[in-house]
Amino acid sequence: MRSEHSWKNIPENWVSLGLPIADTTIDLYIALKPYRENALVDALNEISDPGHSRYGVHLSREQVTDLVAPHPDTIQLVHSWLEHHRITSSSVSVTHGGSFLTVTAVSVSQANDLLGASYQLYTHTKTNETIVRTLGYSLPVVLHGHVQTVAPTTFFSSPLTQWHTPRKRSDVAAVRPGKSPSRRDDADVTLASLRWLYSTVTYVPSAMDRNKVGVTGYNEEYPSPADLKSYMLKYRPDGIDATYVVELVNGGKYDPSNPGTEANLNIQLSEGMTYPTPHIFYSTKTSPSGDHFLAWLNAVLGGQNVPQTITTSYGFFENAFPRRYAIQVCYLFAQLGARGASVLFASGDDGVGRGDCIRFTPIFPATCPYVTAVGATMSLGPEVAASLSGGGFSDIFQRPEYQQQAVSTFLDNLGHQYSGLYNPLGRGIPDISAQARRIPIFHKGEEDILKGTSCSAPIVSGIISLLNDYRLSQGKPPLGFLNPWLYGGGLNGLNDIVSGSNPGCNTDGFSAVVGWDPVTGLGTPDFLRLMHTLDQGSSNPPE
């Protein structure tokens, strides 16, 4: 047996309750390595590169399944391993296009024998959530080249963080339609000011029959149609009939009579920016593995079509994830990009890290190189970095080729500052930013003022959705995975942010500078200029 991952100590905020009762069972998820290791990422890079002949030729579900399929020997070896431990084939099913095996109703004693593990019950000291986990597990050496990771094992899934801070509305200035944004930092950043600032006011969507926005929901947070109506009535009266479709994932629920601030925030900002583009709200229950994203990915990737734009305002500190596990989840987001989805994640609200951290702590999945991480700005003319903007460098994912030049320039100018506190070879976040302070929404019939990258993520995704609408209306494919374009020709459509910083970990954090920086990324979007860069780009095949 070879150790796959182990913790020296029980992860923070968790305590052991000892052994589970004798008849406790769990479902195991076994991620298999693809036969062609780099095939998916190679294809993603080609179809996401505006300079490549395959740009925009997104893949079908079946084509992605073929790219991620394991070798036949992998299937045989894993099944033999399971059978050796008296796990019958009837309890094993295939998910994620053949890249995952799901083994149902495995007894804890069987799981311990199978994985050289020691499963116990653990409870979260702040939420009282109880899970079955092990501090370490192993696999036979013969499976090392065939199995990527197994869950649930060593990933202690703390409750998903929601990146916003609510405040009750106060009697401060608000930007109204037809007026230029104020320079005052205490002005409410209304929908009118956002549409003015990011140049979307004059654009009218026309591809509503094809273009969709997906908004992810977790933690039993639901949007309210009544709150959406109140928001649109005040800030976008032409969209008072805005609505959304709810998809329940993995036993998720929907109770609009008990809405959550996060869900209301995401739906209202996204609908306000993109009306009348259709929206899907995914209400997702945590998967049996304890991973909040795995169940949602399984459902969406299993469908024949995916939304062209998907926004998520949740995440974990990257250091909570076992390395192999994070890589596998990130790989599933790459599949979404290959299918033609632009996937955006909030970069977090703790600057370079929270509290007395001894090393900067970026946020996952924002650090996944196959998603677009959204940071935070503030002030209306000129914009500056918001101090809460999550940013930094991944300790798991290497810096991707598309950002090599931009990030290297920043690091060369940074010199030795903060040496040892971050990984200079890691994937840098965020990629792009938007307003994230004093954002009004409606919640339970009253107006709240919010701040955080939970605000900026749906704002940016709304702008991307309008760009997708523009392309689809011209008979072109959607943008899909954004980053190779953003770091290339898309730069001409972004406003560089050169002031502000993101303190954390008892430091001043990084500073916003000319070019890319780990505070605001490449800057904020200008819709009309981004449209122009698309018009100037290479020709694309019809969708």
From TrEMBL:
InterPro entries: Peptidase_S8/S53_dom_sf, Peptidase_S8_Ser-AS, S53_propep, Sedolisin_dom, Tripeptidyl-peptidase_I. GO terms for cellular component: extracellular region. SMART domains: Pro-kuma_activ (SM00944). One of its GO terms (biological process) is proteolysis. Keywords: Calcium, Glycoprotein, Hydrolase, Metal-binding, Protease, Secreted, Serine protease, Signal, Virulence, Zymogen. This is tripeptidyl-peptidase II. Ca(2+) binds at D496, I497, G515, D517. Binds 1 Ca(2+) ion per subunit. It is an enzyme of class 3 (hydrolase). It holds the Pfam family Pro-kuma_activ. Its EC number is 3.4.14.10. It is found in: Secreted, Extracellular space. Gene3D superfamilies: Peptidase S8/S53 domain. Its cofactor is Ca(2+). Its main location: secreted. Secreted tripeptidyl-peptidase which degrades proteins at acidic pHs and is involved in virulence. Residues 188-537 form the Peptidase S53 domain. It catalyses: Release of an N-terminal tripeptide from a polypeptide.
